[in-house]
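User: quick one, fold this
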Amino acid sequence: MAPARPFWKGHLKLSLVSCPIALYTGTSSTERVSFRQINKKTGNRLRQQLIDDVTHELVEGENKGRGYEYARNAYILVDDDELDALAVESKHTIEIDSFVPREQIDQRYLDTPYYITPDGQVGQDAFAVIREAMRGKGMVALGRVVLAKRERVIMLEPWEKGLTATTLRYPYEIRDAKEYFDDIPNVKVEPDMLKLAQHILQSKATDFDPSQFVDRYEEAVVAMLKKKQAGVTVPRERATPRPQNAVNLMEVLRRSIAQEKAASTPRKKDRKRIEGQGEMLLPIAGKTGKQAAAKPAERASARRENAG
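Assistant:
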């Protein structure tokens, strides 16, 4: 069942074919532990207020507006209804401009994911035609849409019975990698070292499985909150990693391989590994076997209970 409130409603258009659609946000941060700003003396929650930068007087909500600074401390006042009146077709319609190979899109341009569904019974056939025309071709559609008072380039591709949409960043939003990488020296890697490193890589190779991702920092925060709620004193000293002694890189690589072999060698009491079963991408610290095997939804429910 689709969420009750879409983020955006409009039409999807390919040439003369169009259909009403609803766009929903594809991610959520509600499962994260969040903090409020409080008064440390009273324990009460703090509220932010708007203060005039010149008069230093409190500004009420009805006097809050937006303005464009065209010179220092000089602004052009712009009302919301003036922005809403702008005649830009992408405010109400995602028109597909072109189709491009998915592999050609630089991953740095990918921004925010969304889901697109048909909006009502009207246009179901047109939606299916547009969706199936792209499926299996390795192509994605590029269009434009106005979201949060800004026109964004958006990438569409089939996903199950619907479409996924990902907003793309503009070129001026992407920093030039040369600014960061040009000063890295050209190091010639010894063949033997490279071979050892590749062996380590191969020993850790597995299939991508996001269900194995665990936010260990958040789990530590939840554990700390539970201790504080129970009146247990928690440490305040920051844990610092022990400095690494300068050693021979080749020796480190050999020790890494030995460590990986030892970790992958099953003990007698361990169950035999199922053929074709991949290793977990990330370790699950502090989890019992039952918790580690829990489904993502079950783990999310457990996190909510822990946070409460």
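User: anything notable?
Assistant: Confidence is low (pLDDT under 50) at residues 270-308.
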